[in-house]
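Hi everyone,

Forwarding the result from last night's run.
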Amino acid sequence: MTSARDNVTPSFARQAAAETIGRLQAGYRHNIAPAVAAVARLRREVGRDPHSSPTGWGLDDLEALTRIRDEAARHEDSAAESFSYAERIRREEREDREDRAVHLAVTLWALHQQSLREDPMHVSRWTLGHATRRLAEGKAGTSDRADNEDRGPTGASEKDTRHKPVPDADLSPSVRKRFVRIGTSADFEMLGVRLRELVLLLRSARIPLDYGLLADQLNRWQVAALQADVRREWGRGFHRAYSPSTTDDGKREVPPVSSEAALVSMATDAGD
């Protein structure tokens, strides 16, 4: 059965980040020289503004975003050319938010994927809250494997905890504290710094993230009226206990994506 959220068009930020990372990830994991070089350049831009830093000019993290915008513009009514001054300002502000969101998401992925060839660190449906929960449980990777050497007479492994969620009280306090700090970030720069700290831990544990979804959330987070919704998505993801059976088959519930029209409308309302 198709739900209403299945028919919502992904935001430009989500489309662009997923497309860019998908292309670079494949090349990087196969050690293709141009992709490896591109990822190295992107990694050095983590935390920098996408346009004010000259070293970031010409990187391909915003190429897909620009193309997606151009394609959408060609399908708009010709009357859209007669934007009022206020409408032009709103459009520029929206594009600035998208640029920052995609740039941060793509550069964080480049940091996350560094030196890892075996596994992709951008994986669909691995939300920020879900990945952090996995880290807080002290687990690594995306699946738990039974230790065959420790199987008892019934054939069950005493160390096999694949389907036993870790109680909240037993989660890592330091990881939880980092996650809370992300949620209480006062501005986008601070948010980027705190996400970078968490991504380094996720890389060590080889736990992936859905960077397309993260780009969409970073885009919405920059609109004050939408920050609570984003924080709610992160919190709900964290409180859903890890379950391989509902993660790998794609049936686990994920937050809805934002259509561009809906996001523009909400941002406009917030600014009025």
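The radius of gyration is 20 Å.

Cheers,
N.
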